[in-house]
Amino acid sequence: MKAAPVVSDVLLGLAVLLVLASAVGILVMPGAYAKLHFVTPAALVAPILVTLAIGVRMGLTENTGESCLALVFMVIGGPYLSHATIRAIRVRERGDWRPGGSGKAPGTEEEQ
Amino acid sequence: MSFVAAAIAMLIATIPAAVVLVRGEPPEAVIGYEFITSVAVMILALLAQGFQRPSLFELPVLLAVLMYASGLVYIRALERWL
Fold first, then answer.
1. How is chain A split among helix, strand and coil, in percent rounded to 5?
2. What value of ipTM does the predicted structure carry?
3. CB interface of B with A, residues 42-71, below 8 Å
4. What is the pTM of this model?
5. Residue A105: which residues within 8 A CB-CB, separation 6 or more?
6. Which one of A76, B17, B59, B66 has the minimum C-beta count within 10 Å?
7. Where are the domains of chain B?
């Protein structure tokens, strides 16, 4: 029995477990701030595991390369999206993302 | 076969996020949308690998790029108009 398929299946299983747990977290946790914590495992860690699983199974092939490319975009874009989301939610709730902000909704401040 | 099974399991995992997307407040719905698009990238990659179609690997790459752009559009709308 070769090790590569076993390792690949284990990595896939971990990725699926991670995504399922994150999905339950998104459903159960109260409020947007708490829910956002459960996007990161599914958007960053699980893609790494899936890419590793494909790489272990296929070796250095076109499939692995394109998976790595998608992974790079997700790893770069994911943190930006999370940060922008939390900033937008804060602006929506308090009118400004800074502590002690204006308290007005964005775009409603009068120009001086 | 394990890749297709993993894709199906991840597809099932999108159901809770879809519930949040449909029933939650706008900020929660955006978070559900981000989760679903992230999982969709993996589902497309797993299906392409499972069915041995290397040409289909372009779909997850494209979706990974579009996920970033579309996410920012929704976030901007959430911040200003929703």
1. 75, 0, 25
2. 0.88
3. 42, 45-46, 48-49, 54, 57-58, 60-61, 63-65, 67-68, 71
4. 0.86
5. A95
6. A76
7. 2-80
